[in-house]
Known about the structure:
Low-confidence stretches: none
Shape: globular
Radius of gyration: 21 Å
Largest sheet: 4 strands, antiparallel
Order of helices and strands: HHEEEEEEEHH
Amino acid sequence: MKQFGGGQLLNWGPHLVDWGMQLIGAPAADVWSNLKCVAARGDAEDHVKILIRGDNEVVADIEISGAAAIAQPEWIVLGSLGMLVIQGGACRIRYVDPKSMTKAKADPGTPPQIASFGGQHPLRWTEESFEVAPKKRPSFWSEVYRALKRGGTFPITLEQARENVRVLESARKRSGFYATK
């Protein structure tokens, strides 16, 4: 329920936006969002789509949904030389070594070949699959204790927390879902 601060944006949003911001590696320049109540019984959003473009032009596309009928991979990371997919602990990575790429010359009369990205020479992809499991980390409260009582640094900086809140508030405002009527 909205009146109790419910919904996916405030439930899973802080975690996924934080991870997205860490992958972007820069402050958010633009935020676009779409919040919807699709299948939940309450009135809060159960489907969240957020696009964040960093100052460095890197984009994070975050989707949180309690309305998806078929599970999607937890992570899809697209890079300039390949991609990574994580689903249920299984990680698959496919990439090309830039040293193996030849400079292609444009030839409008030649149709592109499969897996060549329009060049005349096929790319030599490297593919790996492996299982991933989270490292055992200390609990949130043990980190708070360590930072306050032992003078350690907290794993999340105040600047990171502020940027996360700024992005979440921007997503909330720009969606129009929480607009007063």
